[in-house]
Design a protein that fits this description.
The protein is built from 21 helices and 26 strands. Strands 7, 8, 9, 10, 11, 12, 13, 14 and 15 form a nine-stranded mixed beta sheet that branches. Strands 3-2-4-5-1-6 form a six-stranded parallel beta sheet. A five-stranded antiparallel beta sheet has the order 16-17-18-19-20, with no helix packed on it. With 652 residues, it is α/β, with parallel strands linked by helices. The protein folds into three domains: 184 residues, Tandem AAA-ATPase domain (Rossmann fold); 207 residues, 3-Layer(aba) Sandwich (Rossmann fold), CATH 3.40.50.300; 153 residues, no CATH class.
Length: 652
């Protein structure tokens, strides 16, 4: 029964604050559950006894949204209500089945009758004369429900004509092409939104790159031979689909597209991107290679290239390094994906390389993934986010590891006589502005193609421009999310059970200003002051403690200590005020208050420090040399990520 006498309406900030005064919500932080804090919020807010009809969940990709949805569906069916999980493809359906099975195993329960339906088939059954009884409808990958489509209209009609229906929308990418798409989803749930950027994962990301396109770190390779000749010979605008095919691969005779039968003569001259990708394949490390194109110049060509260097199909029984394919044209995709993502394939011994198209870009978990090669760019950053999310999942792997991401971009040599090519070769701000201007004019639509801008570069550029607007809307999500009413750092989604109850050390969450030790939560932003030249000076009397769902001004107890560089040692500290690492050398009685910013230390001085520590330098890259110093100091317990720490010896 809807009880507005107990539960507040949440259309105002005051109502949201009252929500968090309810014990059922305030106790989420310490609740002992298989769900983490952000997951438990979903189940609590949409529980059968609350009056709330819907909410949009925009937690990050791989953050466990579907696991929380499985828990919520279980609660509904357990209370003799209906729970329906709506999908738009077979992978979303089977992913939910697996996750629901995992949930009931973890809580030691029996699987209940949670209904799973195709979203279009389900919506077509109901009209205003046939309302739905008390039901929770869960729609995963909800960004596919777009205004202006028949699917959106039917869902809107169902919500309006069936007052007993509740709606849980899940998506890690609520906006694909335009920031207004978020508003369309919010209109289905009366504006209620919960947002978090945090993912509890053991997977670190590393972009393998040699250049930038706006904020994208990309791996550029230059066309040559027949590929370059074919690209320059295109008679249409270089940003039509034909140019995208050629940018990926061509046959020895210059033919390209979906209808060709791939042939390999010289991979380097037929596909600069595939040639580069092959060089990065590492035996024993599971790798996913994504291509938007399948036939001809797409997955078919990449398969042929793999075979040319000794790869064999994984289930062929032949000897050699193995690959598998998952596209809309292949069978047994679920078996292939489960095999690739299984613990038995952790070392890539069963399937080393998985070739896939958009069918693998959503609602699939590729556990133990070590390398992701994106061979074709997209107009929207959400596609890239979804791809990365396949390998960066919540609790993806018991062991911490790095997933390397390769955003492949095909380029062409610039023509010194072309003004536009000269601007491309330069890197000043003025010239970059000229580059943007030229890109916005679609780069030489006359067909002469002296310009050095390729279709790959143009798509990443346009994607970055859309991303600017979308990120502004994401900022709005953070500020208006009801899962964190008064905390600017969204602490509820950040404080995880990974911080043990008997922790001896105070630990920071994703926001460097939020500090947690045992059950104490502190906001230190007001402690840093405004004098950036004195990062060692902190006023700990200006801290705020989280008490009874409110931030209360309170001095940090004396057991919280400001760290200083240890005497007679080389050390590095990340300072709270500006989040910058400073290195201090206090050997031989030297005196230094803060140390020097690591990015401002001369490279020769860093090399001298490393040599004095007996470290052999194996790289000439400045960034790698600096990382070598930090890693060595970390190994010696002389790198400190937290400027403030908890000292048990100072406690009363």
């Amino acid at each position: 029964m809807d009880d507005w006498t107990f539960y507040p309406r949440i259309d105002t900030s005051e109502g949201v604050s009252k929500l968090w005064c309810l014990p059922v919500f305030s106790n989420i932080i310490t609740n002992d559950s298989v769900l983490d804090v952000s997951q438990q919020f979903i189940v609590t807010f949409m529980a059968p006894e609350t009056p709330y009809r819907g909410i949009l969940i925009t937690y990050g990709i791989g953050s466990g949204k579907t696991f929380a949805a499985a828990a919520l569906c279980h609660e509904y069916v357990k209370n003799d209500l209906d729970a329906v999980f709506l999908t738009y493809n077979i992978h979303v359906r089977d992913n939910f089945k697996d996750i629901y099975e995992k949930y009931v195993r973890q809580i030691g329960a029996t699987r209940l009758n949670v209904s799973i339906n195709g979203i279009d088939q389900y919506l077509s059954r109901y009209t205003a004369d046939n309302p739905v009884r008390r039901t929770i409808l869960v729609i995963d990958e909800a960004h596919h429900v777009r205004k202006g489509t028949d699917r959106y209209s039917k869902l809107k009609n169902l919500i309006e004509t069936s007052p007993e229906v509740r709606l849980l929308l899940l998506t890690g990418t609520p906006m694909i092409d335009d920031s207004s798409e978020l508003d369309d989803l919010l209109s289905l749930v009366d504006g209620a939104i919960a947002h978090s950027d945090t993912i509890v994962t053991t997977v670190d990301l590393k972009y393998v790159s040699n250049s930038y396109i706006e904020h994208y770190k990309v791996l550029k390779s230059m066309m040559s031979g027949i590929q370059l000749e074919t690209y320059r010979g295109l008679v249409k605008d270089p940003f039509y689909i034909s140019a995208e095919h050629v940018s990926l691969a061509v046959n020895p005779d210059g033919s390209y597209g979906a209808k060709i039968i791939p042939e390999i003569d010289s991979i380097e001259e037929q596909s600069c991107k595939v040639s580069t990708m092959l060089k990065y394949l590492t035996p024993g490390e599971p790798t996913f290679v994504y291509s938007e194109f399948v036939r001809g110049s797409g997955v078919d060509f990449i398969e042929k290239a793999l075979q040319s260097v000794g790869f064999v199909p994984w289930n062929s029984g032949a000897e050699g390094r193995t690959y598998a394919i998952c596209t809309g044209n292949t069978r047994n995709n679920l078996e292939t994906i489960k095999t690739f993502a299984s613990i038995s394939n952790k070392d890539g011994s069963v399937i080393e390389v998985l070739l896939g198209s958009s069918i693998v870009s959503e609602s699939v978990s590729l556990n133990y993934l070590r390398h992701l090669h994106v061979m074709t760019p997209h107009w929207n950053s959400s596609t890239l986010d979804q791809l990365i999310g396949r390998g960066r999942r919540m609790y993806s792997d018991a062991e911490k590891h790095t997933m390397n991401v390769y955003l492949h971009v095909a380029t062409i040599p610039f023509n010194k006589s072309s003004p536009s090519d000269k601007s491309y070769a330069l890197s000043t701000t003025t010239q970059r502005c000229e580059m943007r201007k030229e890109l916005s004019q679609r780069c030489d639509p006359s067909g002469s193609h002296s310009s050095a801008f390729t279709s790959d570069e143009y798509k990443y550029f346009i994607s970055s421009q859309k991303d600017i607007q979308i990120k502004e809307k994401i900022k709005w999500c953070r500020e208006n999310a009801i899962n964190s009413p008064r905390d600017p750092y969204n602490y509820l989604a950040r404080i995880q059970r990974s911080i043990s109850e008997d922790s001896k050390e105070a630990e920071y969450t994703d926001s460097r200003f939020i500090l947690k030790h045992k059950h104490e939560i502190w906001d230190l932003e007001d402690c840093v002051g405004s004098v950036r030249s004195k990062p060692h000076i902190l006023d700990l009397t200006r801290a705020k403690k989280f008490v009874n769902n409110n931030w209360v001004r309170e001095s940090l107890p004396k057991c919280y200590v400001i760290r200083t560089p240890p005497k007679n040692e080389i050390s590095a500290i990340k300072y709270l005020k500006d989040d910058i690492i400073r290195v201090a050398d206090l050997r031989d009685g030297r005196k230094q208050i803060n140390g020097k910013k690591i990015n401002q230390i001369l490279l020769d001085d860093i090399i001298s420090l490393l040599l004095s520590l007996g470290i052999v330098i194996k790289t000439s890259e400045p960034k790698e040399i600096r990382n070598t110093l930090i890693n060595e100091l970390s190994n010696r317990n002389m790198f400190f990520n937290n400027q403030i720490f908890h000292d048990e010896n100072q406690c009363c």
